[in-house]
Write a sequence for this structure.
């Protein structure tokens, strides 16, 4: 590795022409071969970015069932995964059997006998899907595939429908998935979901239900059940165009409205290109600026464009193409979690603190009118990844193998042990996950300094927002560290009138009025005095925060009320403010944006 230091230039003293010799390629091969030699696990084509680990069993009792989080453990010894506090891990989960069965039943038009036949029907895979399957090394063994050359990886071009849906993203539905189905159906209900940003209410079966309802042969086209797919797709394509013109002719006066057509193009297109092409048609042929075009003339123009291959009007052409099942349901990607354990404390293991996502909801495809809300039954729905993790760790009959992807977080890390600076950690709910790794590491450092006869390091401060006492995980761990003088703990409960007093090293709850962290800061509470002392310009304290976007925005506004915008900029420039915020697209409008000068 010594000569790699010289590779910044094409020629150096003693080293000439290294770049022309493709030294980086050689180094990559050397390091890959070395990794294979050191690691006692089979590697697939994506071994450099993901590893195959095992679930460790988790006991479930009455106490743990009351908690809002689930403690997940992985055995990673021998995989080459070495984590540091603050790192993340990606989990490649699978869809649960219930939603897979519901999806197949939807495609079978709710005929159970037909659904049983569809399970083993082969689904042709797109290039995106075949690439995604490479991240699942256990998949090929489960099919029992035999290769002529075992050393060469071969990804199948088609797999059974049940396996396809197990690896497909069925919950929740994304905005792009709804756009694809809307472009193929122009269903008014889907338009409402898109325009109101409520697509996350839907699941895969809901989306396919609306798609299959739009055309009698939609299922045959999706699943290629016979040799008539091309003819049926062509027929559905023509019907789609007719439907578009029908929706555009709002007044039924034989004219197409510019406003309604732009609305359709905006909802169905993945970008603004389609609606721009629609507007270009109106600009070119609407010479009298009436914002209307003659129905037959507009239909003729659009049909001419969409029948062309590429070039001008390509976006309009894509707008009316009939999608495949691979287009509607993308493959599952890694679900990323903060690691809730330290390598120095839990050797050979990676722990997660996962929020249990379970809720009841009325079938969104039945809500065509608010009048039906009271008569529609409620359905239990679960988080896709969280439910997968809970099933694998608490129930028998499931594979204990899981594909993980380690992600290093160079910024969200503890300072070096040689730097004794105060640490402040703020979290809400399961956002305490990375801070469990923090306090485990701080506890080890504290014990090492005390054992060596040194001065005890500065105490850390952990501030948590929780709902109830039962919703607080790792209570005993926190109490033990507070009793040992490693850190102080402040918790604010929003649904119970209690506070924590763990100074004795044991879990103890004392009466206190319920409240919120950000309100206590704004209302001149005790937290305001504590943070004011630690976040000043002359302080060396480092503030970490892990939460959702809403909580993070409230805390940042509260801190700004203490030290001002200038104080926040100083903390950022001194690398004393480190945030890890999880958000949905709908949260982006409330995120706190910090202006940073050059």
């Amino acid at each position: 590795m010594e000569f790699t230091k010289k590779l910044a230039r094409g020629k150096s003293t003693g080293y000439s022409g290294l770049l022309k010799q493709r030294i980086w390629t050689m180094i990559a091969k050397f390091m890959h071969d070395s990794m294979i030699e050191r690691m006692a696990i089979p590697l697939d084509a994506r071994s450099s970015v993901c590893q195959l680990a095992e679930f460790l069993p988790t006991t479930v009792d009455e106490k743990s069932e009351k908690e809002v989080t689930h403690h997940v453990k992985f055995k990673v010894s021998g995989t080459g995964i070495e984590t540091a506090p603050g790192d993340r891990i990606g989990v490649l989960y699978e869809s649960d059997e219930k939603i897979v069965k519901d999806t197949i039943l939807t495609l079978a038009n709710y005929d159970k006998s037909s659904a049983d036949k569809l399970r083993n029907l082969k689904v042709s895979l797109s290039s995106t899907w075949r690439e995604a399957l490479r991240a699942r090394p256990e998949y090929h063994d489960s099919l029992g595939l035999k290769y002529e050359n075992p050393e060469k990886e071969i990804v199948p071009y088609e797999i059974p429908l049940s396996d396809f849906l197990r690896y497909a993203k069925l919950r929740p539905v994304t905005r792009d998935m709804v756009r694809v189905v809307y472009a193929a159906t122009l269903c008014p209900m889907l338009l409402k979901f898109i325009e109101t940003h409520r697509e996350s209410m839907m699941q895969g079966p809901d989306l396919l239900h609306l798609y299959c309802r739009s055309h009698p042969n939609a299922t045959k086209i999706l699943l290629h059940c016979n040799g008539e797919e091309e003819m049926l797709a062509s027929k559905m394509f023509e019907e789609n165009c007719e439907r578009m013109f029908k929706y555009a002719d709002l007044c039924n006066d034989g004219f197409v409205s510019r406003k309604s057509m732009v609305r359709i193009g905006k909802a169905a297109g993945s970008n603004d290109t389609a609606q721009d092409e629609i507007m270009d048609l109106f600009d070119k042929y609407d010479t009298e600026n009436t914002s209307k075009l003659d129905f037959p003339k507009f239909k003729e123009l659009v049909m001419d464009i969409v029948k062309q291959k590429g070039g001008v009007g390509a976006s309009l052409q894509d707008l009316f193409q009939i999608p495949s099942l691979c287009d509607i349901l993308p493959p599952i990607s890694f679900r990323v979690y903060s690691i809730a354990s330290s390598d120095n404390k839990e050797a050979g293991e990676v722990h997660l603190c996962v929020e249990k996502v379970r809720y009841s909801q009325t079938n969104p495809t039945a809500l065509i009118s608010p009048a039906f809300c009271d008569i529609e039954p409620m359905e239990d729905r679960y988080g896709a990844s969280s439910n997968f993790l809970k099933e694998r760790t608490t129930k028998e009959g499931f594979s204990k193998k899981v594909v993980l992807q380690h992600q290093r977080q160079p910024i969200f890390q503890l300072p070096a042990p040689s730097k004794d600076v105060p640490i402040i950690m703020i979290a809400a709910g399961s956002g305490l996950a990375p801070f469990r790794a923090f306090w485990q590491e701080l506890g080890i450092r504290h014990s090492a300094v005390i054992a060596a006869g040194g001065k005890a390091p500065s105490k850390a401060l952990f501030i948590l927002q929780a709902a109830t006492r039962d919703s607080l995980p790792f209570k005993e761990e926190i109490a033990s560290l507070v009793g040992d003088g490693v850190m102080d703990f402040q918790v604010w409960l929003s649904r119970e009138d209690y506070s924590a007093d763990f100074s004795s090293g044991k879990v103890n709850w004392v009466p206190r009025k319920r409240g919120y962290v950000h309100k206590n800061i704004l209302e001149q509470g005790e937290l305001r005095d504590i943070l004011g002392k630690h976040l000043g310009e002359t302080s060396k304290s480092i503030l970490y925060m892990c939460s959702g976007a809403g909580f993070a925005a409230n805390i940042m506004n509260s801190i700004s009320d203490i030290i001002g915008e200038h104080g926040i900029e100083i903390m950022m420039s001194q690398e004393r403010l480190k945030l890890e915020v999880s958000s949905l697209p709908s949260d982006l409008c409330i995120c706190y944006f910090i202006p940073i000068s050059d």
Summary: The first helix runs from residue 23 to 38. The chain has four domains: 1-38, 46-86+342-410, 175-328, 423-590. The mean pLDDT is 78. The first strand starts at residue 11 and ends at 12.
